[in-house]
Amino acid sequence: MTSAPSDPPQVIGIAADDLTGANDSLVQFAGAGWTSRLALGELDSQRTGSTLATVTDSRALPHDAAGTVTADAVAQLLVACADRLYVKIDSTMRGSIPAQIDGALRTWRRNHVGAFAVVCPAYPAMGRTVDQGQLRVNGEPVESTSVGRDPVTPVSTSDLPTLIPGSRSIRLGAGTATEHAHRLGETAGMEGATVVVDAVTDADLDQLAAALSELGPRAVPVGSAGLAAALASRWGSDAGLPGRTGSTTSPAGQVLIVVSSLHDVSRGQAERLINESADDDLLVLRPTLADVRSRASALAWAAAQKLSVAQRATLLLSPTDRGSTPDALTGAEIAEGLSAIASVVLTDAILPQPDAAALVLMGGDGARAVLRETAAQSVVVSGALQEGVPVGVVDGGTAHGLRVVTKAGGFGNPDSLTDIVHQLCTSSPLSPEALP
Predict the structure, then answer these.
(1) Is 16 helix (H, G, I), strand (E, B) or coil?
(2) At what angle do helices 295-304 and 331-345 cross, to 10 degrees?
(3) Burial profile 208-218: b = 16 or more Cβ within 10 angstroms, e = fewer
(4) Whole-angstrom Cα distance, residue 34 to residue 55?
(5) What DSSP string runs through 141-157?
(6) Which of 29, 30, 228, 282 has its C-alpha lying 20 to 30 A from 295's C-alpha?
(7) Is 18 left (phi over 0), alpha (psi -120 to 50) or beta?
């Protein structure tokens, strides 16, 4: 199966399984010169040189529902003039990934007959690699890490062909981009089977991106921010876009941190911030499961705290006990309660001076709920404070103009959150430069 030369992409569409993952990918495109926007409301037609992401919230959904919402998201991206598609999945393969792939292809094939998926969740900069079809985190099989104990979407095996039934696993090896593109097409075959590709280094991802560029829209890349970075650079070069240089953000006088993630990594980072902060610098809020059971109970709890905004930073932590009874709350329901508490802090300390404040959101459900609370229409992603920590500006709603930082729960080292808060409260460098 051969591939004809592909026209340069004009508009990139990203269908992401959660909000933090969407921003993780968008910041890669911003770094390559693409105007990058996370859509939280209606999707509009995009101009040349744009990347648009929509969030499906599909990670914890059953198979059929995950496929449907992903198919719908891709349909919206087509209406917004996307001529390339990127399906953003979790780098540790949490969630209904086969359904997301099926849903995306079902819609994409309406415009691109014979399209097939090429899957590579590797993100070497964050310790995620794929070798001989096996997904590893910092060298360990993914099921042996905390991901195997995830309370919502645990991963039981590191074998990607098992996690994606019917897929075919390959390693590209030596060769040209054209040769690799030919091999990907041959592996997919006439039936369009999903192809899983090894990647242990960034060079492996660059090699895969070059082959995907040769194949054009017929090949639908599925991966994490690692593959997104390689594609952003390759597609940006194809489209003649300039990269961007670094810049500096102004210090934030007030910071609200909302940690909805239950990942061991994010919890450890939150505790490190608490241990290394003076009482008069950090206010810590720890509602219980009962406190966030409804919006009314969450607001009542917040009112009872007699919240002080004297501290420079406020840390709001999701309850760790999700419960096991039939009426146990879902992660999304708990996030709604957290967002109600966050709204009180936002109103008192953040929104009066949005230009001198910042919002840090760790965990996709919580990020989605808090931004929905402000009626934000989109987030314009501008750069990154550090690897895996994108920063942008809220567009529309009550928090218009507010700086917002998102972070996936499983990324970073123990000091990551402490470093983020320090960077926000001082003059901090961004890469790439802030949007015009």
Answers:
(1) strand
(2) 40
(3) bbbbbbbbbbb
(4) 19
(5) EGGGSGGGG-SSS----
(6) 282
(7) beta
Instruction: Please state, in angstroms and rounded to a whole number, the distance separating the CA atoms of residues 217 and 50.
Output: 16
The structure tokens listed for 264 are: 């061991």
Q: How far is 432 from 436, CA to CA, in rounded Å?
A: 12
CA distance 329 to 327: 6
| Mean pLDDT across 203-208 | 98
Q: How many helices (H) and strands (E) does the chain have?
A: 12, 20
CA distance 46 to 358: 28
Tokens of 175: 């060769």
- pTM reported for the whole predicted model: 0.90
Residue with tokens 């508490």: 341
Q: Give CA–CA dist 431/328, Å, rounded.
A: 42
Distance CA(262)–CA(216), nearest Å, equals: 38
Mapped onto helix, strand or coil, the DSSP state of residue 277 is coil
**How many CA atoms, within 13 angstroms, populate the side-chain half-sphere of residue 416?**
25
Spatial CB neighbours of 44, under 8 Å, sequence gap ≥ 6: 80
Whole-number Å distance between alpha carbons of 289 and 66: 27
Residues with Cβ within 8 Å of 419's Cβ and at least 6 positions away in sequence, in order, are: 385, 386
Nearest one of 101, 83, 60 to 222, comparing CA atoms: 101
- Report the C-alpha gap between 341 and 129 in whole angstroms: 38
Instruction: In whole angstroms, give the CA distance from residue 7 to residue 13.
Output: 16
- As a whole number, mean pLDDT of residues 63-70 equals 97
Cis peptide before 432 (omega within 30 of 0): yes
Residue 5 pLDDT greater than 70, yes or no? no
* Cβ atoms of 259 and 317 closer than 8 Å: yes
- In 3D, which of 163, 195, 193, 185 has the Cα closest to residue 91? 163
- Kindly indicate the confidence band of residue 57, based on its pLDDT and cuts at 50, 70 and 90: very high
Query: How far is Cα 364 from Cα 19, in angstroms, rounded to an integer?
Result: 5
